[in-house]
Design goal:
This protein has 562 residues and is an alpha/beta fold. The protein has 2 domains: 14-415, Rossmann fold; 457-559, ANL, C-terminal domain (GMP Synthetase, Chain A, domain 3, 2-Layer Sandwich), CATH 3.30.300. It is built from 16 helices and 26 strands. The structure holds adenosine-5'-triphosphate and magnesium ion. Magnesium ion binds next to loops.
C-alpha cells in the first residue's frame, strides 16, 4: 500500500532544538526544571501557578474564558489569588491531604480554580464530566466514598445526596444563599494567601474513570510525579512556547481535559483558552479566531464534524494564528488528515495514550513526517513493541498487542480498589505494559492502530481491524461516519458489518450499499468489504470523549436493532 506522507512543517520546534532523532533521553534530565528539584517541596498546583508568579510572570494571562455572552481572563497572579482563597474555604470546611474532592462543573475557569485549590491542599481531585447524569455521578463518588463535592446549582438536579451517604459537604459556585456553601461568596471574605500543603511525588493527585469503551469504567489514581511527563509532552509534543495561546477542547472530566487542558499548559506557562458551550462549527471556528489560538488539541469526532460542514466555511474566519493542531482519543482517519492539510494548510498530529498512562506515549512530533493512518512513533523516553499472544516481539508490519516498556513518569499509581487489575496490564510478567489495543509497527517505527483487542474481526481465518475499513469507507463520498464490527457467521466465523451515517443529500439504498461494498473491495481488499451494511442516523458513542462504541454496535447486532 502506498501512503502519501506529509512532511514536517517549517517551524522553530522545541523538540527539534533540544533533541534529535536517535539521541538518548531520560526523564531524569528534566527534573531540574521543577522547583522541587531544588527545594524538595512538591505540589502540582504550585508548579502550575505559583512558580510562574514567583518568576515574575504574574501579569501574563493564564486563562481566557469565552462563551456566548461572557468573556473573562485571569492572569497568573489573579489565578493564584483565587486558588488560594478557594483553598482556604476548603480547608476551613475540613478538607485535608488525601481526601477526595469531586468537581462537577461546566467548562469554566471555576473548574480550573476548584481543581487547583483542592490539589494545593493535597487532596485528590475527581473531575466529573459535565454531562454526567445522576447514576454516573453517584457511582463515582460512592466508589471513592467521597466526602466533598464542588458543583453548580444548575447541576444539582443530578446530585442526589441521599444516594451518596459518604458525602459530607457540597460547595456551590453560585453566589446565592441556599442549603449549600457558596464557595465563591466565602472566598471573597478570605485573604489571598495560602500555605501550600507539600506532598511527595508519589502522593495521589487525581482520579479519573476510563471512558468505558470496553466495559465498566475503571478508577485510575495518578500521582504528582505525573507533572514530569505532562510538562515535557506539553513542551515537545504540543510544542507549547510561553507565547502560545492554547485550546484543548476536552472537558476536565475526560483525562485529556485534565492533563492537557489544565496541567500541561499551566506547567508550561501558556495562555489556556476555555470555551463554555457545545460544539458547533461556527462557534469553534469563532473561538479559534477570537482568542487567536495558536495550538489546538481536539479529537477525531470533532474534526470529522468540521469536515462534514459546507465547503469553505473556515474561510469566514481568520485562522492565521493557528500553527499546530493535535488529535487524541480514537483513530484519526487519513482522509481527515488530508482534508485538514488541504483546507487549513495544517497537519493534524495524532497522539496516543490512555487514562492509565497519564500522558502521551506515542505521537507525531512536529519535526517528524506524518504517515496518515499512523498515530506516530513512541516519544523520546518511551519504548514500544508489538507482541504476539505469547508476549514475543513481532516483526515489522505484523499486527499484535501494542505494548509499552514500563515504567514512565506518569504511569498510573493504582487502579482504585482493584489492585489485582493493575497486574492484568502485565499479562506476560516483566515490564511490558499491554494497552489492550492492536497495532502494527512499520520498518520506520510508525505505529498503526488496528482496533481494540476486543474489536478484531476474524473472517474466514483473516484477522481484520475495523479501523482500516472505517477509514476506507470515509473516502466514499456518501459516507460521513461509520462503525465496523464482526457479525457472527456459521461459515466464516465472522463477517464484516458496517453501520454507516450518510452525508447530507444521500439516502440509504440497496444500490448505494452495493456501490460502497464495491468501493472497499476494489480499493482495500475483498475480505474487508462489508457483507452487511446498515444505515443509521447516528452512531453510539461514549458520552465523554465521543468514541464510537463498537461494543454497543455488537449489541445492536445481537438484538437485531439494525
Ligand atoms: P475503557 O478502558 O473503559 O474501555 P477507553 O479505553 O476508551 O475506555 P480511555 O482511557 O479514555 O478509555 O481511552 C484510551 C483508549 O483510547 C486507547 O486504549 C485507545 O484504544 C484509544 N485511543 C486513544 N488515542 C488514540 C489514537 N490516537 N488512535 C487510536 N486510538 C486511540
Ligand atoms: Mg481502556
Amino acid at each position: 500500500m502506498t501512503t502519501v506522507t506529509i512532511p514536517p512543517a517549517k517551524g522553530d520546534y522545541q523538540v527539534g532544538r533540544e533533541w534529535r532523532e536517535g539521541d538518548p533521553f531520560h526523564w531524569k534530565e528534566i527534573h531540574s526544571r521543577f522547583t522541587w528539584h531544588g527545594t524538595g517541596k512538591v505540589n502540582m498546583a504550585y508548579e502550575c501557578v505559583d512558580r510562574h508568579v514567583a518568576e515574575g510572570k504574574g501579569d501574563k494571562t493564564a486563562l481566557h474564558f469565552l462563551s456566548e455572552g461572557e468573556e473573562t481572563t485571569y492572569t497568573y497572579a489573579e489565578l493564584q489569588r483565587e486558588v488560594n482563597r478557594w483553598a482556604r474555604v476548603l480547608q476551613q470546611n475540613g478538607v485535608k491531604k488525601g481526601d477526595f474532592v469531586f468537581v462537577f462543573l461546566p467548562k469554566h475557569p471555576f473548574c480550573h480554580i476548584a481543581m487547583l485549590a483542592a490539589i494545593k491542599l493535597g487532596a485528590v481531585v475527581g473531575p466529573l464530566f459535565e454531562a454526567f447524569m445522576e447514576e454516573a455521578v453517584k457511582d463515582r463518588i460512592n466508589d471513592c466514598e467521597g466526602e466533598y463535592l464542588i458543583t453548580d446549582h444548575s447541576f444539582l438536579d443530578r446530585v442526589i445526596p441521599e444516594d451518596i451517604p459518604s458525602l459530607k459537604t457540597i460547595f456551590v459556585t453560585d453566589k446565592q444563599d441556599g442549603e449549600y456553601i457558596s464557595i465563591t461568596k466565602e472566598a471573597e471574605k478570605e485573604t489571598p494567601e495560602f500555605e501550600t500543603v507539600w506532598v511527595d511525588l508519589e502522593d495521589g493527585l487525581n482520579i479519573h474513570y476510563t471512558s468505558g469503551s470496553t466495559g465498566k469504567p475503571k478508577g485510575i489514581i495518578h500521582a504528582h510525579r505525573n507533572m514530569i511527563q505532562q510538562y515535557q509532552t506539553g513542551r515537545w509534543v504540543l510544542d507549547l512556547h510561553e507565547s502560545d495561546v492554547y485550546w484543548c477542547t476536552a472537558h476536565p472530566g475526560w483525562v485529556t481535559g485534565t492533563v492537557y487542558g489544565v496541567f500541561a499548559p499551566l506547567l508550561n506557562g501558556v495562555t489556556t483558552v476555555i470555551h463554555g458551550g457545545r460544539f458547533s462549527a461556527e462557534a469553534w471556528y469563532g473561538v479559534l479566531e477570537r482568542a487567536g489560538v495558536t495550538v489546538w488539541y481536539s479529537a477525531p469526532t470533532a474534526f470529522r464534524m468540521l469536515k462534514s460542514q459546507l465547503e469553505g466555511l473556515h474561510k469566514d474566519y481568520d485562522l492565521s494564528n493557528l500553527r499546530h493542531v493535535l488529535s487524541v482519543g480514537e483513530p484519526l482517519n487519513p482522509e481527515v488528515i488530508h482534508w485538514a492539510y488541504k483546507t487549513w494548510g495544517l497537519r493534524i498530529h495524532d497522539t496516543w495514550w490512555m487514562t492509565e498512562t497519564g500522558a502521551q506515549l506515542v505521537a507525531n512530533l512536529p519535526t517528524r513526517t506524518i504517515k496518515p493512518g499512523s498515530m506516530g512513533r513512541p516519544i523520546p523516553g518511551i519504548k514500544a513493541a508489538v507482541l504476539d499472544e505469547e508476549g514475543r516481539e513481532l516483526p515489522a508490519n505484523e499486527t499484535g498487542h501494542l505494548a509499552i516498556q514500563a515504567s514512565w513518569p506518569s504511569m498510573m499509581k493504582e487502579v482504585w480498589k482493584n489492585p489485582e487489575k493493575y497486574n492484568t496490564y502485565f499479562p506476560f510478567g516483566g515490564n511490558w505494559y499491554l494497552a489492550g489495543d492492536l497495532a502494527y509497527m512499520d520498518e520506520d517505527g510508525y505505529i498503526f492502530f488496528q482496533g481494540r483487542s476486543d474489536d478484531m474481526i476474524n473472517s474466514s481465518g483473516e484477522r481484520i481491524g475495523p479501523f482500516e475499513i472505517e477509514s476506507k469507507l470515509m473516502e466514499h463520498p456518501a459516507v460521513k461516519e461509520s462503525g465496523v464490527i464482526g457479525k457472527p457467521d456459521d461459515v466464516r466465523g465472522e463477517i464484516v458489518k458496517a453501520y454507516i451515517v450518510l452525508n447530507e443529500g444521500y439516502e440509504g439504498s440497496e444500490e448505494l450499499s452495493k456501490d460502497i461494498r464495491g468501493f472497499v473491495k476494489s480499493s482495500l481488499a475483498a475480505h474487508a468489504a462489508p457483507r452487511e451494511i446498515a444505515f443509521t442516523a447516528e452512531l453510539p458513542k461514549t458520552q465523554i470523549s465521543g468514541k464510537v462504541l463498537r461494543r454497543e454496535l455488537k449489541k445492536w447486532e445481537k438484538e437485531g436493532v439494525l
